[in-house]
Design brief:
rod-shaped, mainly alpha
Length: 150
């Protein structure tokens, strides 16, 4: 026998099947029984004269079709979600690998630049000190002009 929860869960679909099977049922009739199994079976018996067992059998078939369709849709949704998740994970891994390569390249470039600078300072200490002095003076002048204009 169909239960209350299944009937209410698939009510709109089952309503259409009921109206196809028993055309004399009105929307108002079905609205009064909205998901209540006993009321629905009694209503159909009164309107159609159909046996209770035949009505219950029809409801069982109608709800099992709806549940099967629902389960199939849920499984398809699960499969799509799984595929989307795998795709996102793959792209995340690729992005992380690219970021890591870029980071490694930048670190290596800075390391080489530092080594070259260190080597130049060792080879030409007087010129390096003069360049540092000049850069410091230039920064001081620029900072002084900026603060003075305020």
């Amino acid at each position: 026998m169909v239960n209350q929860q299944t009937l209410q869960g698939n009510w709109n679909e089952i309503k259409g099947k009921l109206r196809n099977k028993w055309g004399q049922l009105t929307n108002d009739d079905l609205q009064m029984a909205h998901g209540n199994v006993d009321q629905l079976v009694g209503l159909i018996q009164r309107k159609t004269g159909e046996a209770r067992s035949a009505i219950e059998k029809f409801l069982d078939e109608a709800t099992s079709d709806g549940a099967g369709t629902f389960n199939q849709a849920a499984e398809t949704a699960r499969e799509y979600a799984q595929q989307a998740m795998e795709s996102v994970q793959d792209r995340s891994k690729q992005a992380a690998e690219q970021f890591r390569k870029g980071y490694d390249q930048a670190a290596e470039s800075f390391r080489r630049g530092y080594e070259q600078t260190e080597e130049m300072i060792k080879d030409r200490p007087a010129e390096s000190a003069a360049v540092c002095f000049g850069v410091g003076m230039l920064c001081g002048v620029i900072l002084g002009l900026a603060l003075r204009s305020r």
